[in-house]
Specification:
The chain is mostly helical. The protein has a domain of 91 residues: de novo design (two linked rop proteins) (Up-down Bundle). 68% of the residues lie in helices and 3% in strands. Strands 1-2 form a two-stranded antiparallel ribbon.
Amino acid sequence: MPLAPVPDRATGAAVPEPHRLDVYRVALEFHSIATNLLPRRGFAELRDQLHRASTSIALNIAEGSGRLAPADKARFYVIARGSTTECVAILDLVEASVAALPERVDRRRVLLIRIIQMLTKLVARYTATRGAP
């Protein structure tokens, strides 16, 4: 059952479904700080991949939240979780290449772990509603 639109307290306008999910807000936060991790010169491929993967997290969460069928929701959340683990691997590569200070990577890694945890719970919720996978 889809969530009913909730009015914004300030404007009274309906809030889109992805904005009601904490995982979406954390994904946006990660995306906003992800791309400035790497220097502008060199690492163009990793920077581009990190940008695309972090974009994919937010977009798949948004698309999943708009789906009505539990199986559809779960499928998009699984895809978002995959993009999140891809971002974790990119951070590992960044650390291995000594391109960034560890404390700059750590904050991003904390956000990614939170995203993975929340997406795992969402997948379990929507998988459980339709039976075992």
